[in-house]
């Protein structure tokens, strides 16, 4: 699969469905941190700069391509009935890879359920993510092994978890930082407001990374806020910045600076990555019912992978052999993912009762016995 062919497939437009949309606010270019334009031109920013080697640039490109291929494969597996659900990151690769590669090993990550690119950066096996959406594990990884917390389905709650963890980091005297990911829809949740309050008051070393993909399922951003999301931080007493979420270099530079600020004791910071969800909210969603094809086409021209490829090619930082080898690597990753998912064993039916209470519980014991008897009844009927 070439990079050009991994671009988002244009959704089918329903002729029978009338869709209306209020005017979508666009990012103020004077306030948007950008280091790589949609045309692949390298530009400078007075407050954020970055100097990467050709090898490092190729590494970022590889991360985005492989993450997109994995994501596409997961969507296909769900359509084939192998997964119960999947939340695609299509279009958000730069925001996730850029911020993920800004982290140190000792930093701690609190994701939502869409941070597949960040999980890749933290060396979480992609098949563990798929096991959760297949329903055969409860996450599949030890959060402390990679400093990457389990996926959080409850909208916005992980920001409070991150704040509390960051407060603990500060009390321990460590110089690491914490990052919490959430979306534009989650910014309306009370948990996020409380996290902002506590992090500011306690000067917690936490970075709030909001991926503003402009759609909280079918609700556009203007239904969430009257001001740009990054400006909300001012009301809580800490800085906010808006970055081009389709620019992997800018996302890396801004997140790296925010994390270093947190580590040095200067407190929290809000990063709003202004991007676009090119796919559906999840595989149970139909975005053609609420947004126009023209809007998506506009953002396809800002594709984060294509702009970096343009830059790599123009500067002769990567040749055709590199792209061909990467295509082969992405094919191998897709095959490994397919084979792994289809060979996953069914979970132990009784595992749900394990690890609930450290010393056991009478009610859990009773429920376990009832469920065991229920399962046994099927075997009896079979005879």
CATH superfamily of the largest domain: Thiamin diphosphate (ThDP)-binding fold, Pyr/PP domains
CATH topology of the largest domain: Rossmann fold
Measured by DSSP, the beta-strand proportion falls in: 5-15%
> Any low-confidence stretches, pLDDT <50, length ≥5?
1-25
CATH class of the largest domain: Alpha Beta
Q: What is the architecture of the largest domain at the second tier of CATH? A: 3-Layer(aba) Sandwich
Number of strands: 8
Residue-averaged pLDDT, rounded?
A: 91
* Termini separation: 50 Å
Number of domains: 2
What does this structure look like?
GO terms for molecular function: magnesium ion binding; oxidoreductase activity, acting on the aldehyde or oxo group of donors, disulfide as acceptor. Residues 1-29 are annotated as: Disordered. Residues 9-22 have a biased composition (Basic residues). It comes from Streptomyces buecherae. The chain has helices spanning 54-79, 93-100, 116-121, 126-134, 143-146, 157-172, 190-201, 232-236, 248-263, 293-300, 304-314, 320-342, 362-382; strands at residues 32-33, 108-110, 178-183, 206-212, 215-216, 219-220, 240-244, 269-274. It has 383 residues and is an alpha/beta fold. The protein has two domains: 36-343, 3-Layer(aba) Sandwich (Rossmann fold); 351-381. The strands form two sheets. It has a six-stranded parallel β-sheet, sandwiched between helices. A two-stranded antiparallel ribbon has the order 5-6. α7 links the parallel β3 (178-183) and β4 (206-212). α1 crosses α2, α1 packs antiparallel against α11 and α6 (157-172) packs parallel to α7 (190-201). The longest helix has 26 residues, at 54-79.
């Amino acid at each position: 699969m070439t990079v050009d062919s991994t671009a988002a497939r244009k959704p089918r437009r329903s002729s029978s469905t009338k869709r209306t949309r209020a005017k979508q606010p666009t990012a103020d270019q004077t306030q948007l941190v950008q280091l790589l334009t949609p045309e692949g031109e390298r530009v400078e920013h007075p407050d954020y700069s970055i100097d990467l080697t050709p090898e490092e640039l190729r590494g970022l490109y590889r991360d985005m391509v492989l993450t997109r291929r994995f994501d596409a494969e997961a969507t296909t597996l769900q359509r084939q009935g192998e997964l119960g659900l999947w939340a695609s990151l299509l279009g958000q690769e730069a925001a996730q890879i850029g911020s993920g590669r800004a982290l140190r090993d000792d930093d701690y990550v609190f994701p939502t359920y869409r941070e597949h690119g960040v999980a890749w950066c933290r060396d979480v096996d992609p098949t563990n993510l798929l096991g959760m959406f297949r329903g055969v594990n409860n996450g599949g990884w030890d959060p402390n092994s990679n400093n990457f917390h389990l996926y959080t389905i409850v909208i916005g709650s992980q920001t409070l978890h991150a704040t509390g963890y960051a407060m603990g980091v500060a009390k321990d005297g460590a110089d690491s930082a914490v990052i919490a990911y959430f979306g534009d829809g989650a910014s309306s949740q009370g948990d996020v407001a409380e996290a902002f309050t506590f992090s500011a008051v306690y000067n917690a070393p936490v970075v709030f990374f909001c991926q503003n993909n402009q759609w909280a399922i079918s609700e556009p951003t203007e239904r969430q806020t009257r001001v740009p999301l990054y400006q909300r931080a001012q009301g809580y007493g800490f800085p906010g910045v808006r970055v081009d979420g389709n620019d992997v270099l800018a996302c890396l530079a801004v997140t790296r600076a925010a994390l270093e600020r947190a580590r040095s004791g200067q407190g929290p910071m809000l990063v709003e990555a202004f991007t676009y969800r090119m796919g559906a909210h999840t595989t149970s969603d139909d975005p053609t019912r609420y947004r126009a094809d023209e809007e998506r086409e506009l953002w396809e021209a800002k594709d984060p992978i294509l702009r970096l490829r343009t830059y790599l090619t123009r500067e002769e930082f990567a040749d055709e052999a590199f792209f061909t080898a990467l295509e082969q690597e992405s094919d191998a990753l897709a095959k490994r993912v397919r084979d792994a998912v289809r060979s996953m064993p069914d979970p132990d039916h009784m595992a749900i009762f394990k690890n609930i209470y450290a010393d056991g519980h009478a009610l859990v014991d009773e429920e376990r016995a009832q469920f065991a008897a229920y399962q046994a009844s099927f075997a009896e009927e079979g005879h």
